Amino acid sequence: MKLSVQEGMLPGRCLEEKLDRAAALGFDGIELGGGGLRNGFDTVQRALAGHSVRVSTICSGYRGCLLDADKAQRDLAVTDIEVLLQAGGALGAVGLITVPLFGGPRLPDLSPLRNVGDLETDLLVEILGPLGETAQQAGCLVLVEPLNRYETHLINRLSQAVDVVRRAGAKGLAIMADLFHMSIEEDDMAQAVRAAGKRIRHVHLADSQRWQPGTGHTDFGAVFRALRDVGFRDYMALECGLRGRPGTALANAVTFLKEHMG
Predict the structure, then answer these.
(1) pLDDT digits 0-9 by tens, 67-108
(2) Of all helices (H) and strands (E), which one includes residue 141?
(3) Cβ proximity of 172 and 142 under 8 Å
(4) What's the CA gap between 128 and 165, in Å, rounded?
(5) Residue 114 per-residue DSSP state
């Protein structure tokens, strides 16, 4: 298992400075925002040339929405995701973090013919299949992220993400596990990890109250043991708020996490 951190959490005036700070703090990777990467690929590639810190993942950053009622918005999301998958593959990223829907439904409720949840899920499966094929060709996975019930009504638990990926069937699809969302939605976080198994290809790290690890009551040791049990070897990226001065808070988080990673 390797540690990564979102670029926006790192002190620094430019990506080069952020990469240097990440290396000094003991991170192996950096998670880039997809919005900046769409138009700044060459700049990112130059900054990464010869650096020890690699791109772990790309966090969203696409326009549109995969489950919007307007087909133009769905198509925009698909097009942007395809662009980011190609960029991620070129940069060696594990995958592109993809949230199918924020908030409530955007599709119509067709009850009693079809309820909106089933309609959304079926549509998502149809969209993810071809995207997964593109992802496989690009060498950058589509990573479906479950969110807690306060941020989306659809796909709140790892098992739901696994089911959608399984139904879509493409090899370029996987899921990610965010410990903050899991602390709200999963009855047993370690058991949820074991059940999802090798479908998990990325992890977001935050403590129970969404501050840096080591400040709340999440049992990181139990989750890390479960990840080792399922053979997880990829990146775990900090995505959280920081209590205290950023440099000190990040350094403390790295020390805490490495102690529990064993």
Answers:
(1) 999 999 999 999 999 999 999 999 999 999 999 999 999 999
(2) strand 141-144
(3) yes
(4) 8
(5) B
